[in-house]
Amino acid sequence: MKALQQNAYGAPADVTALVDLPEPVAKAGEILVEVEAAAMHLADLKFINGDAGFRYFTFPRICGHEGIGYVIKLGDGVTDYKVGDRVFLPIGSGTFRQRLAVPAADCPPATAGDAKQLALTVINGMTAVILVDDYAAALKPGDWILQNGANSSCGRYIIKLAHDKGLRTCNIVRRASLIPELKALDADQVIVETGDPDKTAELVKAATGGVELSIGFDCVASTGTETIGRCLVRDGTIVNYGYMTGKNCEVSFQDLFRKHVKLVGMSMQSPRTKDQRKVVYAKLAAMIAKGDLKAKIAATYTLDQIQVALAHQAKTGDDRQGKIIILPNG
User: Under a CB-based contact definition with an 8 Å cutoff, are residues 224 and 120 in contact?
Assistant: First the structure.
């Protein structure tokens, strides 16, 4: 059975290898799953590189944090699933492999639909739900959410989830070519980042009609965080959930001191129980299967092409427009 194994921290080509492992066996309470599709995230590269804050694995380990597959064998005592059922794999279970045995209780049921799209449900989908439903819970229909990184999978999901709740979104992107694309997804306003927080804040003000913005989602970090803060009203909240720039968040002293702007980090540890999470996953999966939520897919690769996939994941902008999806079984 093929799998991508990491043996140390460093450049992917130096510390990962496609290996042939013994076939996994489903123990009592487990299911054996054949992986259809596994999403590759920026965090996967950071874990391989050993970036600051991403060094807590022991080696060797199998890479991959998210995926979807079919049950091909049941361990003793499993009654919730049958062979042929489709499931989401547990977060961080090492999904860049052809098959794996996992506890049945940790696998939410998955729906029919495009495996490449559904492979993004558990991390990107849930992130968007937590941001819109939890962190923006105080907003009323007609209120605005400001976000950067709006072309990301999470950004696209946020646009749709917010729209369905009657909320409006002002979306910051790096390229003007993305404006019609995001508008077609129900984005209310899309503006291009200027690189200057004050100038971008003026564009945001003009686009939103000068309304008071109380919350902004930041997945860029660095001066992207500062730009969000510059746009917010007094006591506004910046919610950071990523750092595409690879740099720490920056917030202006003036925004902190004069406006009391707050910076908080988003946690995937929402107060939802496992059963409540399954309900959310089912809702997201249904929306994805219908095409109501749709991520941009940059490319798909097999495990035999994994080093090409990792190199592609490291690219940004026009060189990688969308998600990288691994198809372990071709």
Answer: no
How far is Cα 15 from Cα 186, in angstroms, rounded to an integer? Answer: 42
Whether residue 103 contacts residue 86, with contact meaning beta carbons closer than 8 Å, is answered with: no
Q: Which domains does the chain have, with CATH numbers?
A: 2-120+295-327 (3.90.180.10), 123-265 (3.40.50.720)
What SS3 state is found at 295?
coil
Contact between residue 95 and residue 87 where contact means Cβ atoms under 8 Å apart: no
The four Cα atoms 82, 85, 87, 89 give a dihedral, to 10 degrees, of 60
Local structure of 292: helix, strand or coil: coil
Global pTM value = 0.94
With tokens 């984005």, the residue in question is 187
What gap in Å lies between CA 330 and CA 308, rounded to an integer? 15
If we measure between CA atoms, which residue out of 198, 156, 154, 148 comes closest to residue 175? 148
Does the CA dihedral 150-272-281-136 come out positive or negative?
A: negative
Convert the pLDDT of each residue in 161-212 to its tens digit.
Answer: 999 999 999 999 999 999 999 999 999 999 999 999 999 999 999 999 999 9
User: The tokens 């807590």 sit on which residue?
Assistant: 56
Could you give the CA distance from residue 77 to residue 104 in angstroms, rounded to a whole number?
Answer: 10
Q: Which residues 6+ apart lie within 8 Å of 124 measured at CB? A: 39, 153, 154, 157, 295
Joined tokens for residue 27:
């123990």
For tokens 């049958």, name the residue.
82
